[in-house]
Amino acid sequence: MNKLILSTALLALTAGGALAQDTIRMGTEGAYPPYNFIDDNGEVAGFERELGDELCTRAELTCTWVTNDWDSIIPNLVSGNYDTIMAGMSITDERDEVIDFTQDYYPPTDSIYLAPEGDIDLEGAVVAAQTGTIQAGHVAETGATLLEFATGDETIAAVKNGEADAVFADKDFLLPYTDDGSLVVVGDPVPLGGGIGMGLRESDTELKAKFDTAITAMKEDGTLNTLLKKYFGDETSTY
């Protein structure tokens, strides 16, 4: 267990239960469209904002939204700065040692590489990825040189300014950057993670149960699939 996992686990022991307070604070990054972003009015928007608001309604909870940088999003959950994480976070065994997850609200999907040209040797390339992501972990295992950045936007900028040869991230995040032809998909898609779920403190079992019930209901009545297609297109994975 590394120091980050140990320290966040200890914090989790001291964090209070979310349902003891009147308002559930929904934590997100606000910088990973179309999952979550800040709109022209300065408000959290995107797939997870719309889904999260609906889940709160179905669970009969009053919720507000809080933004936090990705690299400290788990420690600030367990220390009590907010009560959930909805930030395009893949469910992994390592994260599950520190926090708990609801069932997935987005099935496992592919990650892809983008580069200015399609003939990049990915194994010998310098590849940009957002720090603390499953994509960064994957790049580190491939033999490529990993260049980590705090935000997804910075990984794109690193490729465009020549600092990195390619970028690796969620397919849904990267594909819009191919629209102007400056970046192209390189290599084959890579399946990673166990789907995307809502992160919660280990102690918040009642809150997890409420959100799990709401997610199940949205899967069963088709409204979750409708949201997935709205934000990610008709070809996206659904339930």
Write a structural description:
The chain has two domains: 3-108 and 194-232, Periplasmic binding protein-like II (D-Maltodextrin-Binding Protein, domain 2); 110-191, Periplasmic binding protein-like II (D-Maltodextrin-Binding Protein, domain 2, 3-Layer(aba) Sandwich), CATH 3.40.190. 35% of the residues lie in helices and 26% in strands. It has helices at 3-14, 47-58, 73-78, 93-96, 134-142, 152-160, 171-174, 205-221, 223-232; strands at residues 23-28, 31-32, 36-38, 44-45, 62-67, 84-85, 100-106, 110-115, 126-130, 145-149, 166-170, 184-191, 196-200. Strand 3 and strand 4 (44-45) form a beta hairpin. The longest helix is centred in the last third of the chain and has 17 residues, at 205-221. The radius of gyration is 18 Å and the shape is globular. The two termini are 34 Å apart. Residues 1-15 have low confidence and may be disordered.
